[in-house]
Amino acid sequence: MKWFLHKLAMMFGADPRKAAPTEETDAAREMKRYKKTPEQVQKRKAIIDHEHQYPLVSNKWRNMRWASIILINALFIISFAWDVQLVEGSMSASRFLGFHMADPNAALQVFLAYKELVLNLVIGTVTVVLLWWIVGGRAFCSWACPYHLLAEWAEALHLFLAKRGWVKDHPFHRGLRVVLWVIFMGLAFFTGYTVFEYINPVGIVSRALIYGPTVAVVWVIFLLGIEVFFSRRFWCRYVCPIGLTYGITGAVAPVQIKYDLEKCVHEGECRAVCLVPHVLEITKMGYASDTTEFIGPDCTRCGLCVDACPQEALSFTIRGLDKIV
Amino acid sequence: MTDGSDTPKKPRLTRRELERRRLMLRTVGLGVAAVAAGLVGWYPVYRQMFDRLRPPGALAEKDFLASCIKCGQCVQVCPVEAIKLADGDEGYGLGVPYIDARAQACDFSCDAVQCVLACPTGALSHAIATKEEVTMGFARLARPESCLAMKGEGFTGLARGYDFTGLLRYEEIDRWEPQPVASHPYELELCDLCVRECPIQGAISLERISEDPADPRRIPTVHKACVGCGTCEMICPAEPAAIIIDTELTLEAQS
After folding, report:
1. Cα–Cα–Cα angle for A205, A210, A211, nearest 5°?
2. Start and end of every 4Fe-4S ferredoxin-type domain (chain A) (predicted)?
3. Which of the residues A101, A183, A185, A194 would you substitute to probe the B interface, choosing the one with the greatest number of B C-beta atoms within 10 Å?
4. Does residue A215 share a domain with residue A302?
């Protein structure tokens, strides 16, 4: 429980840390001791060397995810362009086959700004919260958000330039996202305007895709420019309150990424590709609290780590299902 | 431990501490910048730089901006595509629907307020159910000198020219399919387009200007029933339109 609370605190900006001896299970302690024996260290070194010699490249989950983002956003576009009414509206609120859907973050702002509870909006928000709770809260970010896809491409460009030493990543403190969440919700309440929606690239991109380009897209390009030249994935990592809202939504979601300590060789391929690498600190030698554990609330279930791990130490799983089957 | 004790210097920061300090400064900077960017949107709203005609059922402007979730479902259901979403220059109006009546008025081709039914947040208030209950604005003869009826003149031809893209419900042609205004030529002895095409019963009429029965001149007179849909503004053949819609903001400023 305490270890889970630490993971929750990490989502709110706390620094990752090692599991304390009191948080370790006996099995984990035993496993770590075993892994530190000279022959095991030697064995891992050989595995890593072999991997570097014959790198395995898999893009399975990434491709599925890109297909998902494109499909979801295409449904919005097609619905309006061809008037087929599958998903009417945009990312902030829509009707899926007539059922109300509402982005919880936008709905919360509207509620705070307008100060009246609208039934349709409550229905839409509850539906979306339930849906994304099942697949893991921030799965919205990596499986549906149109800005996420653009940001991934910007990230690829950033990494390309960084490898050549032309740009450098400037990290920020992750606690900023929580502070901004509170500030923007407060602004909605006190000014009566949905202030964040003015700078929200998700809304801007979604509307631009469906209703045609706007000048506001320049703002999104500016943000992507910062991600390429100054700070890797800065919007999703340090700013976007939507990510936090969905993170809370899926704090104890059924769909999880599971970490297997036994299989892990601690080389850190997963942390190098992760949008939220602090959740993968448990893959460092000696950091995990149990022999298998779930990654945690801030994870976007993007599957990049699952693709990256050559040892299959990270995998998609459904909470509790392995105990039943 | 003698380092620095006899040579009083500022405590030197380690590389790590320095990096941490920079990170915190950057973070504060980013936070301030993000909030500031959000607040930029307040300026055009505060200055009322845009005086927009909102769709049927819209709440008072302040409440409307607060309650609209910027999803555009109202845009999607409008059969004449009268509803547009505002761009970033309108501040907190970004993504909020408006109607440019001169380009495409809300002519109630949908037979009453589909946009209201589509709105998930009640920003377009469900309190109204018929077109007669709408209060978007109010028509006003803003340029009487250019009004053809005021001059006693007739009108022949296309109301807005051959390249005008606006649609209008011509019930005698097709009740369910709005027709391009550009496909419908008129031949009128006295121009009465604003009255003829008004979708609301008793909202506007032509009244005599003088006692003289031979005087053909008439004045378009707007009555209480007017809902501000803007059909008169769209169809008016004068350029710019002789009759326009005063929005809620304008009406407030006038009173």
Report:
1. 100
2. 291-319
3. A194
4. no
Q: Are residues A279 and A156 in the same domain?
A: no
Rounded distance between C-alpha atoms, residue A229 and residue A221, angstroms: 12
Q: Name every chain A residue with its beta carbon within 8 A of the beta carbon of B26.
A: 170, 172
Residue in B30, B38, B41 nearest the CB of A176: B30
Which residues of A, range 249-268, sit inside 8 Å of B by Cβ? none
Which of A215, A248, A281 marks a domain boundary?
Answer: A248
Beta bridge partners of B180: B167
Domain boundary among A248, A282, A309: A248
Mean pLDDT for the stretch of residues B117-127: 91
Task: Name the residue in chain B with its Cα closest to that of A79.
Answer: B76
Number of structural domains, chain A? 2
Domain residue limits at B227: 49-254
Domain count, chain B: 1
Burial of A90 (0-12, 13-18, 19+ CB in 10 A): buried
Do A192 and B69 count as a contact with CB atoms less than 8 A apart?
Answer: no
Is there a contact between B24 and A102 if contact means CB atoms under 8 Å apart? no
pTM of the model: 0.91
Looking at residue B12, its pLDDT comes to: 78
d(CA A309, CA A266): 10
User: A108 and A198 share a domain?
Assistant: yes
- Cα separation of B10 and A315, whole Å? 51
